[in-house]
Fold this sequence. Notes:
By secondary structure, chain A is α+β, with helices and mostly antiparallel strands.
Amino acid sequence: MLAGADSFIKEITREAGDATLKRFGKDGVHYTKSERIWDVVTKADLLSEKILVSRIKKQYPRHGIISEESGSHNPGEEYVWVIDPIDGTLNFASGTPLYGVMVCLVHDSEVMLSAIHIPATGEFFFAKAGKGAYLNGKRIYCSSRKDVGKTFGTGSTSFSPRSTHFFGKLLKAGKGDQMMYGSFGSMANNACYTAAGRRDWMVALNGSIWDFAPVSLILKEAGCKITNMKGEPWKFGMLEMVAANPVLHRKLLVLTKDV
Amino acid sequence: MLAGADSFIKEITREAGDATLKRFGKDGVHYTKSERIWDVVTKADLLSEKILVSRIKKQYPRHGIISEESGSHNPGEEYVWVIDPIDGTLNFASGTPLYGVMVCLVHDSEVMLSAIHIPATGEFFFAKAGKGAYLNGKRIYCSSRKDVGKTFGTGSTSFSPRSTHFFGKLLKAGKGDQMMYGSFGSMANNACYTAAGRRDWMVALNGSIWDFAPVSLILKEAGCKITNMKGEPWKFGMLEMVAANPVLHRKLLVLTKDV
Lengths: 259, 259
């Protein structure tokens, strides 16, 4: 691995998160990218991206960068940085303290390092391939609950046709049971809180490469099995994810495999 | 109204919230009240309740008290304090920073004052009948979105038969649309964040008197219309709630009236 990249990714993600926090509760929506209510951009998104992209370009001028607001630079390089300058922008813009700055380093299509800063709650998540996942420096582990009917899940927020299909199956499976479901409205929170065992599983069906790549390593290193809806191992580029401890994951696949 | 009660309710709710925050991330589940995964009690629930009940008994010895963990004392009195020492205990016990200490003062079955402290995010909500709702001293208002298909709602988390019925109708109404739904896993956060316009509506079908009474005034004073599922004005004692701006509320009733 790249020497010094561990501390570099932590440093820039913390810096960008701190910069967004200074604008939190002040920035409203700057512009919208489509008619969809969640497709918004604030000035803080642009500021965070500017910090991250300029730091990476200076430190690693030959690396590729894929970033939400400014697109891709050399995404075919051996090393590629994937950036979500603010994940959960709708939360951010409305003053809801659940959003994250997410950065990961991908080497030959494998996520090697990931840092997610949730500044409004003071939570900093970090993972290194093969070395575990951490919250504020302390090792975290996914939930060990195994009875799907007694779990608290999280994931998709919007009613896309596929997520609606999944929710329908979930309602049928969970009806009258002790199941719970709740989305925080940000992938950063949904995934990191699942990695920390605060929720038992995540099923996410909507998002882009910068939503999925950074959270994948945090979840995996916390002990989650991560796959697509069919149960195939999650790979860089997949835009869906089922994450849970391996026993629970197998049971969830019954609900997701035909979604 | 009772002279001095405004500052008293703020003071004790802040004190209890601060006490829970000291234990946040340390207290796990102390005991469970039933087999349901969310029916848990931590030592912090008991501590918060002890602070609130002892302060109220000392200040207003003749008032009634209804509290989650220790039950009722003179609930037929003219003035009754309703307490949820920790709302969102499952979040609290798992280290999720979304829980609240909720207290309200009821006079002849009307909620007159309400204070909700969400200590892990530093948010203090307060409302006084006829005088508005406030977050950290600043007036808050509910969302003004009117197109139900382009809203972000919140509310029930668990799959009770009635909430499953509602979710089924919601999925049908929202399918392929720009609707979003997400529960924070605590009534305090669901309701206060709706009152602050961070979510557009709340439909809550599960809970006890100490869940609904404190949030009712915050929502109402933020401009929400609050009713039961049928659309009848919400009254102290009702254990269900539809909350939204009046135009959106009328549209939501189509989905809730037969639930």
